[in-house]
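At this stage, I put together a protein sequence along with its fold in token form, as given directly below:
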Amino acid sequence: MDAIPFSHAPGALLRYENFPSRLIPPRHVDVWIPPNHEASTDARFPVLYMHDGQNLFLPGNSFGSEPWAVDKAAVRLMADGKIPGVIIVGVWNAGDSRWGEYLPQQPAETPEGRAFAARFPARLPGAIYSDSYLKFLVEELKPFIDSIFRTLPDQPHTFVMGSSMGGLISLYALTRYPQVFGGAGCISTHWVAGEALIVDYFGSVLPRPGFNKIYFDYGTETLDAAYEPFQRRMDEHIRAAGYTFGKDWLTRKFEGAGHSEHSWRERVHIPLEFLLHIP
């Protein structure tokens, strides 16, 4: 399918409008290519799949008109020699069905999970289909990206990241497909969508340590103010599973940071470096 190029520097930004799927509703997919992808004829790059793709690159699409500017953060890290480069794939969300796509389906479909989900009728007006969303990423989108761009398609070079509900679906992607994704960035993870139920579910299905990286963070203001006790509980699961802080797991607390694209823009370089740095 043809891409729509956007005037964008540094690097190049392409949009695949209404990317088709047999699994989920079509949506736009934005792909940012680093400058050294265009300059080189043989170099290959890791790939980062990010949720809420409309909030990543362009102010006209993003919530509050302030994008994460994740591309600019990546270029700064590349210039400093901290990461080798990366292709960033921004998958747009489904609008009113966002919670249905991002709420982890396995715990949500237990009797306890269904009772908890019933507390959010406005957020979940329809079915929960995050398993289909992840299958779309793995079986439809990733093969397409690997066929078009010079990627490093193997597990150690394939990552997933998002914020809020996007943090939940990123961790869910890692636990469901640890053989596909080498790491997950979970920013301001919206633990209150499932509280202890969802934390303990993830604690029970973590991949064995040494093969995946997991990054968490949270602020202390607005919605983020409710996250700390659940993140601490998740951290205990991570420790018990044998993950090593600073090596294959990192949790950061940001005093004064709220739940917004502005806050995530200020610190997105940290998970990028943690996930993509290869010693």
Q: What stands out?
A: The chain has one domain: 4-276. The first strand starts at residue 4 and ends at 6. The beta strands are 4-6, 12-19, 27-33, 47-50, 87-91, 158-163, 183-187, 213-219, 249-254. The radius of gyration is 18 Å.
